[in-house]
Queue: 2 jobs
Job 1
Amino acid sequence: MTNSEQQSALITGGNKGLGFEAARRLAEQGWSIFLGSRDEGRGRAAAEKLIAGGANVVMVPLDVTSDESVAEAVRLVREHTTRLDVLINNAGAPGHAIAPADATIDEIHPVYDTNVYGPIRVTQAFLPLLQAADHPRVVMVSSAGGSFAVVTDPAQPVSKMHELAYSSSKAALNMITVRYAQALPNIRFNAVTPGEVANHTFAATDMNNHTGQLTATEGTDSIVKLAMAPADGPTGTFTDRLGPVAW
Ligand SMILES: NC(=O)c1ccc[n+]([C@@H]2O[C@H](COP(=O)([O-])OP(=O)(O)OC[C@H]3O[C@@H](n4cnc5c(N)ncnc54)[C@H](OP(=O)(O)O)[C@@H]3O)[C@@H](O)[C@H]2O)c1
Protein backbone atom coordinates (compact mmCIF):
# COMPACT_ATOMS: atom_id res chain seq x y z
CA MET A 1 0.00 0.00 0.00
CA THR A 2 2.76 2.52 0.83
CA ASN A 3 5.68 3.42 -1.42
CA SER A 4 8.92 5.14 -0.41
CA GLU A 5 7.60 8.69 -0.98
CA GLN A 6 4.10 8.27 0.37
CA GLN A 7 3.68 9.16 4.04
CA SER A 8 1.60 7.00 6.33
CA ALA A 9 -0.19 7.77 9.57
CA LEU A 10 -2.08 5.77 12.16
CA ILE A 11 -4.68 7.82 14.02
CA THR A 12 -6.32 6.40 17.14
CA GLY A 13 -9.95 7.41 17.61
CA GLY A 14 -10.07 8.26 13.91
CA ASN A 15 -13.76 7.52 13.46
CA LYS A 16 -15.03 10.96 14.48
CA GLY A 17 -14.19 14.41 15.81
CA LEU A 18 -10.62 15.64 15.59
CA GLY A 19 -9.23 12.20 14.73
CA PHE A 20 -11.50 11.93 11.71
CA GLU A 21 -10.71 15.49 10.59
CA ALA A 22 -6.96 14.88 10.94
CA ALA A 23 -7.39 11.70 8.86
CA ARG A 24 -9.30 13.65 6.20
CA ARG A 25 -6.69 16.41 6.04
CA LEU A 26 -3.67 14.11 5.85
CA ALA A 27 -5.40 11.89 3.27
CA GLU A 28 -5.98 15.05 1.22
CA GLN A 29 -2.18 15.44 1.14
CA GLY A 30 -1.94 12.00 -0.46
CA TRP A 31 -1.00 10.17 2.74
CA SER A 32 -1.94 6.56 3.48
CA ILE A 33 -4.20 6.58 6.50
CA PHE A 34 -4.65 3.82 9.04
CA LEU A 35 -7.88 4.91 10.68
CA GLY A 36 -8.11 3.45 14.18
CA SER A 37 -11.54 2.86 15.67
CA ARG A 38 -12.55 0.83 18.71
CA ASP A 39 -15.93 0.12 17.09
CA GLU A 40 -15.61 -1.61 13.72
CA GLY A 41 -18.95 -0.35 12.40
CA ARG A 42 -18.22 3.29 13.22
CA GLY A 43 -14.69 2.91 11.87
CA ARG A 44 -15.86 1.34 8.63
CA ALA A 45 -18.47 4.08 8.07
CA ALA A 46 -15.82 6.78 8.65
CA ALA A 47 -13.27 5.09 6.39
CA GLU A 48 -15.85 4.64 3.63
CA LYS A 49 -16.66 8.35 3.75
CA LEU A 50 -13.00 9.22 3.17
CA ILE A 51 -12.48 6.50 0.54
CA ALA A 52 -15.52 7.85 -1.36
CA GLY A 53 -13.61 11.16 -1.60
CA GLY A 54 -10.59 9.38 -3.10
CA ALA A 55 -8.58 8.85 0.08
CA ASN A 56 -6.22 5.93 0.70
CA VAL A 57 -7.59 4.58 4.00
CA VAL A 58 -7.44 1.29 5.85
CA MET A 59 -9.72 0.93 8.87
CA VAL A 60 -7.89 -0.59 11.84
CA PRO A 61 -9.99 -1.95 14.73
CA LEU A 62 -8.16 -0.48 17.71
CA ASP A 63 -9.22 -0.12 21.34
CA VAL A 64 -6.35 1.66 23.05
CA THR A 65 -7.27 0.11 26.42
CA SER A 66 -6.69 -3.46 25.16
CA ASP A 67 -3.25 -5.07 24.72
CA GLU A 68 -4.83 -7.70 22.49
CA SER A 69 -6.52 -5.13 20.25
CA VAL A 70 -3.30 -3.14 19.92
CA ALA A 71 -1.29 -6.26 19.03
CA GLU A 72 -3.88 -7.16 16.41
CA ALA A 73 -3.69 -3.60 15.02
CA VAL A 74 0.10 -3.94 14.60
CA ARG A 75 -0.42 -7.21 12.74
CA LEU A 76 -2.98 -5.61 10.41
CA VAL A 77 -0.84 -2.53 9.68
CA ARG A 78 2.12 -4.83 8.93
CA GLU A 79 0.02 -6.47 6.21
CA HIS A 80 0.06 -3.12 4.40
CA THR A 81 3.43 -1.56 5.15
CA THR A 82 6.90 -2.15 6.58
CA ARG A 83 7.10 1.31 8.20
CA LEU A 84 4.89 3.90 9.85
CA ASP A 85 5.83 7.58 9.43
CA VAL A 86 3.39 9.09 11.93
CA LEU A 87 1.43 7.91 14.95
CA ILE A 88 -1.27 10.25 16.25
CA ASN A 89 -2.37 9.26 19.75
CA ASN A 90 -5.71 11.07 19.55
CA ALA A 91 -8.23 8.76 21.28
CA GLY A 92 -9.35 10.32 24.52
CA ALA A 93 -11.85 9.88 27.33
CA PRO A 94 -13.24 12.94 29.14
CA GLY A 95 -14.48 11.18 32.27
CA HIS A 96 -17.50 12.63 34.06
CA ALA A 97 -16.07 15.88 35.48
CA ILE A 98 -16.51 14.57 39.03
CA ALA A 99 -15.14 16.84 41.77
CA PRO A 100 -11.84 15.76 43.36
CA ALA A 101 -13.39 14.84 46.73
CA ASP A 102 -15.83 12.46 45.01
CA ALA A 103 -13.61 11.04 42.29
CA THR A 104 -13.03 7.38 43.09
CA ILE A 105 -10.66 5.00 41.31
CA ASP A 106 -13.70 3.74 39.38
CA GLU A 107 -13.85 7.20 37.79
CA ILE A 108 -10.10 7.71 37.37
CA HIS A 109 -9.08 4.30 36.06
CA PRO A 110 -10.91 4.22 32.70
CA VAL A 111 -9.79 7.78 31.95
CA TYR A 112 -6.15 6.90 32.67
CA ASP A 113 -6.50 3.62 30.77
CA THR A 114 -7.48 5.59 27.66
CA ASN A 115 -5.52 8.85 28.03
CA VAL A 116 -2.33 7.65 29.75
CA TYR A 117 -1.85 3.89 29.33
CA GLY A 118 -3.46 4.02 25.86
CA PRO A 119 -0.80 6.24 24.25
CA ILE A 120 1.97 4.23 25.99
CA ARG A 121 0.46 0.92 24.91
CA VAL A 122 0.05 2.04 21.30
CA THR A 123 3.40 3.87 21.05
CA GLN A 124 5.33 0.92 22.44
CA ALA A 125 3.62 -1.56 20.13
CA PHE A 126 4.24 0.58 17.02
CA LEU A 127 7.85 1.58 17.85
CA PRO A 128 9.43 -1.01 15.52
CA LEU A 129 7.30 0.22 12.58
CA LEU A 130 8.01 3.86 13.49
CA GLN A 131 11.74 3.20 13.78
CA ALA A 132 11.70 1.74 10.27
CA ALA A 133 10.60 5.15 8.89
CA ASP A 134 13.06 7.85 7.71
CA HIS A 135 11.90 10.52 10.16
CA PRO A 136 9.13 9.21 12.36
CA ARG A 137 6.82 11.48 14.32
CA VAL A 138 4.42 10.86 17.21
CA VAL A 139 1.74 13.43 18.03
CA MET A 140 0.14 13.22 21.47
CA VAL A 141 -3.25 14.93 21.55
CA SER A 142 -3.21 16.50 24.99
CA SER A 143 -5.25 19.36 26.45
CA ALA A 144 -4.83 22.80 27.97
CA GLY A 145 -6.35 21.10 31.03
CA GLY A 146 -3.09 19.14 31.32
CA SER A 147 -1.04 22.32 31.72
CA PHE A 148 -0.13 23.36 35.29
CA ALA A 149 0.33 26.93 34.02
CA VAL A 150 -3.16 27.06 32.51
CA VAL A 151 -4.98 25.29 35.34
CA THR A 152 -3.39 27.60 37.96
CA ASP A 153 -4.14 30.78 35.99
CA PRO A 154 -7.30 32.35 37.52
CA ALA A 155 -8.08 34.01 34.17
CA GLN A 156 -8.52 30.57 32.55
CA PRO A 157 -12.05 29.11 32.87
CA VAL A 158 -10.52 25.64 33.40
CA SER A 159 -9.03 26.88 36.71
CA LYS A 160 -12.58 26.96 38.10
CA MET A 161 -13.51 23.46 36.92
CA HIS A 162 -13.17 21.14 39.91
CA GLU A 163 -12.19 17.94 38.19
CA LEU A 164 -9.50 15.34 38.78
CA ALA A 165 -9.39 12.53 36.21
CA TYR A 166 -9.11 14.22 32.80
CA SER A 167 -6.75 17.10 33.65
CA SER A 168 -4.32 14.90 35.60
CA SER A 169 -4.35 12.29 32.82
CA LYS A 170 -3.36 14.91 30.25
CA ALA A 171 -0.67 16.31 32.60
CA ALA A 172 0.74 12.78 32.74
CA LEU A 173 0.56 12.55 28.95
CA ASN A 174 2.58 15.76 28.66
CA MET A 175 5.37 14.32 30.83
CA ILE A 176 5.23 11.03 28.92
CA THR A 177 5.74 13.01 25.70
CA VAL A 178 8.81 14.76 27.10
CA ARG A 179 10.33 11.54 28.44
CA TYR A 180 9.87 9.73 25.11
CA ALA A 181 11.32 12.73 23.26
CA GLN A 182 14.43 12.75 25.46
CA ALA A 183 14.98 9.00 25.24
CA LEU A 184 14.25 8.52 21.53
CA PRO A 185 15.80 11.49 19.68
CA ASN A 186 15.35 9.84 16.27
CA ILE A 187 11.55 10.17 16.69
CA ARG A 188 9.83 13.58 17.00
CA PHE A 189 7.42 13.39 19.95
CA ASN A 190 5.19 16.43 20.46
CA ALA A 191 2.12 17.16 22.55
CA VAL A 192 -0.56 19.47 21.18
CA THR A 193 -3.81 20.95 22.42
CA PRO A 194 -6.62 21.51 19.91
CA GLY A 195 -7.85 24.81 21.39
CA GLU A 196 -6.37 28.31 21.54
CA VAL A 197 -5.08 28.70 25.10
CA ALA A 198 -4.66 32.49 24.88
CA ASN A 199 -8.28 32.90 23.76
CA HIS A 200 -9.77 30.29 26.13
CA THR A 201 -11.27 28.44 23.16
CA PHE A 202 -11.60 24.78 22.19
CA ALA A 203 -12.93 22.84 19.22
CA ALA A 204 -16.57 21.79 18.87
CA THR A 205 -16.82 17.98 19.01
CA ASP A 206 -18.97 15.32 20.69
CA MET A 207 -16.60 15.42 23.68
CA ASN A 208 -17.88 18.87 24.63
CA ASN A 209 -21.39 18.56 23.16
CA HIS A 210 -20.26 20.87 20.37
CA THR A 211 -19.91 23.85 22.72
CA GLY A 212 -16.43 24.67 21.35
CA GLN A 213 -15.82 27.93 19.50
CA LEU A 214 -13.36 26.49 16.97
CA THR A 215 -14.18 24.18 14.07
CA ALA A 216 -12.80 20.64 13.92
CA THR A 217 -10.54 21.85 11.12
CA GLU A 218 -9.11 24.63 13.32
CA GLY A 219 -8.87 22.13 16.16
CA THR A 220 -6.65 19.87 14.07
CA ASP A 221 -4.23 22.62 12.92
CA SER A 222 -1.69 21.79 15.62
CA ILE A 223 -2.11 18.03 15.10
CA VAL A 224 -1.58 18.27 11.34
CA LYS A 225 1.36 20.68 11.71
CA LEU A 226 3.28 18.35 14.04
CA ALA A 227 2.35 15.29 11.98
CA MET A 228 3.97 17.03 9.00
CA ALA A 229 7.02 18.28 10.93
CA PRO A 230 10.30 17.89 9.00
CA ALA A 231 13.21 15.67 10.09
CA ASP A 232 14.85 18.61 11.90
CA GLY A 233 11.50 19.72 13.36
CA PRO A 234 10.72 20.17 17.05
CA THR A 235 10.54 17.41 19.61
CA GLY A 236 9.41 17.45 23.24
CA THR A 237 7.19 20.51 22.74
CA PHE A 238 3.63 21.46 23.75
CA THR A 239 1.79 23.76 21.36
CA ASP A 240 -1.62 24.89 20.16
CA ARG A 241 -2.47 26.34 16.74
CA LEU A 242 -1.14 29.74 17.88
CA GLY A 243 2.25 28.53 19.21
CA PRO A 244 3.92 27.25 22.39
CA VAL A 245 1.79 26.44 25.44
CA ALA A 246 3.28 26.69 28.95
CA TRP A 247 3.58 23.29 30.67
N1 LIG B 1 -12.28 19.16 21.28
C1 LIG B 1 -11.36 19.88 21.88
O1 LIG B 1 -11.28 21.12 21.80
C2 LIG B 1 -10.31 19.19 22.70
C3 LIG B 1 -9.63 19.96 23.66
C4 LIG B 1 -8.61 19.35 24.37
C5 LIG B 1 -8.26 18.05 24.11
N2 LIG B 1 -8.95 17.32 23.19
C6 LIG B 1 -8.52 15.93 22.93
O2 LIG B 1 -8.67 15.65 21.54
C7 LIG B 1 -8.82 14.24 21.36
C8 LIG B 1 -9.98 13.97 20.41
O3 LIG B 1 -11.17 14.38 21.04
P1 LIG B 1 -12.44 14.99 20.25
O4 LIG B 1 -12.63 16.36 20.76
O5 LIG B 1 -12.27 14.74 18.80
O6 LIG B 1 -13.62 14.11 20.89
P2 LIG B 1 -14.59 12.99 20.26
O7 LIG B 1 -15.23 13.49 19.03
O8 LIG B 1 -15.44 12.55 21.41
O9 LIG B 1 -13.59 11.82 19.83
C9 LIG B 1 -12.97 10.98 20.77
C10 LIG B 1 -12.45 9.77 20.00
O10 LIG B 1 -11.72 8.93 20.92
C11 LIG B 1 -12.20 7.60 20.71
N3 LIG B 1 -11.96 6.74 21.87
C12 LIG B 1 -12.37 6.90 23.14
N4 LIG B 1 -11.96 5.84 23.89
C13 LIG B 1 -11.27 5.01 23.04
C14 LIG B 1 -10.60 3.78 23.19
N5 LIG B 1 -10.56 3.14 24.37
N6 LIG B 1 -9.99 3.23 22.11
C15 LIG B 1 -10.02 3.85 20.92
N7 LIG B 1 -10.66 5.01 20.70
C16 LIG B 1 -11.27 5.58 21.75
C17 LIG B 1 -13.68 7.78 20.41
O11 LIG B 1 -14.23 6.59 19.88
P3 LIG B 1 -15.83 6.27 19.96
O12 LIG B 1 -16.48 7.01 18.83
O13 LIG B 1 -15.86 4.79 19.83
O14 LIG B 1 -16.32 6.76 21.30
C18 LIG B 1 -13.58 8.92 19.41
O15 LIG B 1 -13.19 8.43 18.15
C19 LIG B 1 -8.99 13.65 22.76
O16 LIG B 1 -7.77 13.10 23.21
C20 LIG B 1 -9.35 14.87 23.61
O17 LIG B 1 -9.00 14.70 24.97
C21 LIG B 1 -9.99 17.86 22.50
Note: The two ends are 39 Å apart (CA to CA).
Job 2
Amino acid sequence: MAIESATCILCRRLRQMNNRGLLVKGRYVCPECEARIIVLSRDDPDYDYYKLGLKKIWYWPSA
Ligand SMILES: [Zn+2]
Protein backbone atom coordinates (compact mmCIF):
# COMPACT_ATOMS: atom_id res chain seq x y z
CA MET A 1 0.00 0.00 0.00
CA ALA A 2 1.58 3.26 -1.10
CA ILE A 3 0.98 6.39 0.87
CA GLU A 4 1.56 9.36 -1.39
CA SER A 5 0.72 12.07 1.04
CA ALA A 6 -1.04 11.80 4.32
CA THR A 7 -2.47 14.13 6.85
CA CYS A 8 -3.15 13.15 10.39
CA ILE A 9 -6.79 12.24 10.70
CA LEU A 10 -6.95 13.90 14.09
CA CYS A 11 -5.02 17.16 13.75
CA ARG A 12 -4.77 17.39 9.94
CA ARG A 13 -1.05 17.84 10.21
CA LEU A 14 0.86 16.80 7.15
CA ARG A 15 2.97 13.73 7.50
CA GLN A 16 6.59 14.69 7.87
CA MET A 17 9.55 12.95 6.38
CA ASN A 18 11.21 10.64 8.87
CA ASN A 19 8.02 10.90 10.81
CA ARG A 20 6.68 7.41 11.13
CA GLY A 21 3.53 8.04 13.03
CA LEU A 22 0.83 5.46 13.01
CA LEU A 23 -1.03 4.00 10.09
CA VAL A 24 -4.33 2.33 10.79
CA LYS A 25 -6.16 0.95 7.80
CA GLY A 26 -4.37 3.44 5.62
CA ARG A 27 -5.27 6.38 7.81
CA TYR A 28 -2.45 8.35 9.26
CA VAL A 29 -2.13 9.42 12.88
CA CYS A 30 0.88 11.57 13.65
CA PRO A 31 3.21 10.65 16.53
CA GLU A 32 1.99 13.56 18.62
CA CYS A 33 -1.60 12.44 18.42
CA GLU A 34 -0.57 8.88 18.95
CA ALA A 35 1.25 9.86 22.13
CA ARG A 36 -1.72 11.98 23.13
CA ILE A 37 -4.12 9.10 22.74
CA ILE A 38 -1.94 6.81 24.81
CA VAL A 39 -1.96 9.14 27.80
CA LEU A 40 -5.49 10.36 27.30
CA SER A 41 -7.85 9.71 30.17
CA ARG A 42 -11.62 9.89 30.31
CA ASP A 43 -11.31 13.06 32.35
CA ASP A 44 -9.48 14.80 29.57
CA PRO A 45 -11.62 17.36 27.71
CA ASP A 46 -10.10 16.12 24.46
CA TYR A 47 -11.08 12.55 25.14
CA ASP A 48 -14.30 12.62 23.13
CA TYR A 49 -12.65 14.37 20.23
CA TYR A 50 -9.90 11.81 19.94
CA LYS A 51 -12.23 8.96 20.58
CA LEU A 52 -14.50 10.07 17.77
CA GLY A 53 -11.51 10.62 15.52
CA LEU A 54 -10.32 7.12 16.18
CA LYS A 55 -13.75 5.71 15.62
CA LYS A 56 -13.55 7.06 12.10
CA ILE A 57 -10.51 4.90 11.63
CA TRP A 58 -11.54 1.77 13.45
CA TYR A 59 -14.92 1.64 11.79
CA TRP A 60 -13.92 3.01 8.43
CA PRO A 61 -15.89 1.20 5.73
CA SER A 62 -13.50 -0.99 3.86
CA ALA A 63 -15.51 -1.04 0.65
ZN1 LIG B 1 -2.01 14.46 14.66
Note: DSSP finds two helices and two strands in the chain.
